[in-house]
Design brief:
Shape of chain A: globular
Number of strands of chain B: 0
Shape of chain B: globular
Low-confidence stretches of chain A: none
Oligomer: heterodimer
Strand content of chain A: under 5%
Helix content of chain B: over 70%
Largest sheet of chain B: none
Strand content of chain B: under 5%
Radius of gyration of chain A: 20 Å
Number of helices of chain B: 8
Number of strands of chain A: 0
Largest interface: A-B, 104 and 103 residues
Structural class of chain A: mainly alpha
Order of helices and strands of chain B: HHHHHHHH
Mean pLDDT of chain B: 87
Distance between the termini of chain B: 23 Å
Mean pLDDT of chain A: 89
Distance between the termini of chain A: 25 Å
Chain lengths: 193, 179
Amino acid sequence: MVNLIWLFMLATGIIVSAFNGHIENVTVSAMKAAELGVEVAIELIGVMSLWLGLMRLAEEAGFIKGIARLFGPAIRRLFPSLKPDSPALGAIIMNLSANILGLGNAATPFGLKAMQELQKENPTPDEASPAMITFLALNTSCITLIPATIIGVRLKANSANPTEIIGTTIVATGCAMSVAMIVDYLIRHRRRK
Amino acid sequence: MRVIAEISRWAIPLLLLFIPVFAYLKNVPVYESFVAGAEEGFKTGVRILPFLIGMLVSIRVFVDSGALEIVSSWLQPLFSVLGLDSNFAAIIPLAIMRPLSGSGALGVATQLINQHGPDSFIGRLASTLQGSTDTTFFVLTVYFGSVGIKKYRYALKLGLLADLVGLIVSVWIVSKTFY
């Protein structure tokens, strides 16, 4: 499916550009995007290093394990395939907390760390494990309490009440997350039989 | 509301203070451990680089070509079949863009908010949608790429299902709350 979507976007983009008579745009877009990829990765290296350094401290001090023990019981139900004391749980909780607080650039390092830990418990290393899929579904549909960026945009556009969309956002994201978790549970259940 | 905003503001400084102090009290060699952990940041960054570039190139070529408008116009009849106002159609480009690219979606949302007004139906819907769904496609490729997973199994379908539910509920709750 990923291969198909990737090819679809690329091919459609090129064909539409050709029909519009702006085929040279494809060249510029492709080169610019490749450069942007490097920029994003380099920026990420800085933030990643900072958080992974901090994460190591938290791990060695037993802080991550403590968090996992504190919040683990609630989260663990969603990850029945993980070991009860799995170090992935701590990273997953840190990632979700950062997401909920809207700390995007702290969330990614914790998330990638969680993926590393999940991969250690993955019996099929080139295939996604059920725990990884649950984690990613949770991660992408997770609630953000304050959608700060969009509030900023509304403020600039002279909204009478920039924050009035917080309630609707929480309802929408809450429903999306619940449906994702239920469907995920059903899929896992069916496959195990 | 105020409280949550304050928590967001204080969270990182407090973590930066609390974790090293806590580790020091637990006899962890704080600086050395920090550096050892930070080293992983570089490796991870290099590992996800090809996935970032591959995705960004494909997404950018698609978006810059104007294909988004064409795909949106294909989907428009679907809305009238569902008995929805043609007003809703303005949201389609954002709904397609949202799973692909964070900055791209923010651009589309900003444009919609400015064009229709932040307190119009489309403005409120765009704001809600922007906050309630994520760049699913992008997150999946980068996260899976970082650990060398090639087969996503049902991960993408599940993520996109969540986005679709987010879209439908957004339309419903915005109509319900404000009109």
